[in-house]
């Protein structure tokens, strides 16, 4: 999902319903996505490398420093913020909505 938005530069939608909240930690990840556009430690080191390699040509095309991994990852996060849309569906019935 993030790689489609950030690397492939494709519009993406993440639809999340309250019935999918198996652990409360899921909401923390959703909150991080809404606040900063990224989830800390989302990628393993090999996945992170794939992101860097995948985004590097677009960074070069944008005229940015393609040798700086922080700039490359910031470019990736910026694309995710622009291309990934979160849709959260929660039922107002019952007390669960109030507590989440």
TrEMBL record:
Matches recorded under InterPro entries: DHC, Dynein_heavy_chain_D4_dom, P-loop_NTPase
BP GO terms, sorted: microtubule-based movement
CC annotations in GO: dynein complex
Residue stretches making up the Dynein heavy chain AAA module D4 domain: 3-99
GO terms assigned for molecular function: dynein intermediate chain binding; dynein light intermediate chain binding
Similarity field: Belongs to the dynein heavy chain family.
Protein name, as recorded: Dynein heavy chain AAA module D4 domain-containing protein
Species for this entry: Rhamnusium bicolor
